[in-house]
Amino acid sequence: MQSVLKIVDERFGTGAGERRPALELRLVSERITARDLIRRRIADEVETANRQRADFAAGHARSRSFLIPLGDDAPEVRLNTPSARPAGRARLFDEQAEFDRAITAFEQRVFILLFDDRQVEELDEAIALTPESEAVFLYLTPLVGG
Asked: Which segments within 13-107 are labelled E, that is strand?
């Protein structure tokens, strides 16, 4: 059975709380740990961000200016593509490094993970999914001066 988990981002401490849908994860199991949930979310975000960066770099390399587009077989494109010119290549995110940062942030309570309105305290705690399950990443705003 495949489950769908809704993930929501919420900011606390910024006046009116900001809440927005982040993504939906399709899971083959009815149980997941916080660590796996964070890993899946990071993988999805890194893939999306890297694709956007690579697409931008490739699109930018195809034109000498914004007014004169070049064909894919033009010498300028061959010389200036990200793969031909390492210095101009888009810097991609490292999934493992981003995952490690997210785990550290969880442990330092930079954000709180709520699963079906219950705070998840342990990274390896098994969480049971229901058809209405929702995971909320609640980002805390540090207080000034305290």
From this structure: 18-27, 31-33
